[in-house]
Task: inverse folding
């Protein structure tokens, strides 16, 4: 991937997650059509979902590292608290991923997340029940998590039809004019 493609993807993903922070009724395809109508950054929904999952996983890894240093009562509470806290920080990413939990493209990443959650809570990574233990921790955290809807800001505006136009769309329009 070139730097140009990387930067295009990063910008498009940021816009998609910003929209998802405010609107939970959109599908991955809807988001792509609004942010990247010509599909220059993400050709498929799966590519978008994998990028969102990667962003979530990176942030979760850091949150889990920080939670180990915290004063939680148990390692499992620490892991669960990190997941819940990140869900509040990244509600759009979490909502997008939760809406596509059954996507085959996300299966491997979800399994890795489950194993990481189990490992942080004290279960050895190669334990035969590690993924199931991590799945239970995530399910309990998901039940406790609050996904705040973030109010509109000036970073994204709406067009005449009520659809969102992000930075990339506005730049394209300005360059075309």
Result:
């Amino acid at each position: 991937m070139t730097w140009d493609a990387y930067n295009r993807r990063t910008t498009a993903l940021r816009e998609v997650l910003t929209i998802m922070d405010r609107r939970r009724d959109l599908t991955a395809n809807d988001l792509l059509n609004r942010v990247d109508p010509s599909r220059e950054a993400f050709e498929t929904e799966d590519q978008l979902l994998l990028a969102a999952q990667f962003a979530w996983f990176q942030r979760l890894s850091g949150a889990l590292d920080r939670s180990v240093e915290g004063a939680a009562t148990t390692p499992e509470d620490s892991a669960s608290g990190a997941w819940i806290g990140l869900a509040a920080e990244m509600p759009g990413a979490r909502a997008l991923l939760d809406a596509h939990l059954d996507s085959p493209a996300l299966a491997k990443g979800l399994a890795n997340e489950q194993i990481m959650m189990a490992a942080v809570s004290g279960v050895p990574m190669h334990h035969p029940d590690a993924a199931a233990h991590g799945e239970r921790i995530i399910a309990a955290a998901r039940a406790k998590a609050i996904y705040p809807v973030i109010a509109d800001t000036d970073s994204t505006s709406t067009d005449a039809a009520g659809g969102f136009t992000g930075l990339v769309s506005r730049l394209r329009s300005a360059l075309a004019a």
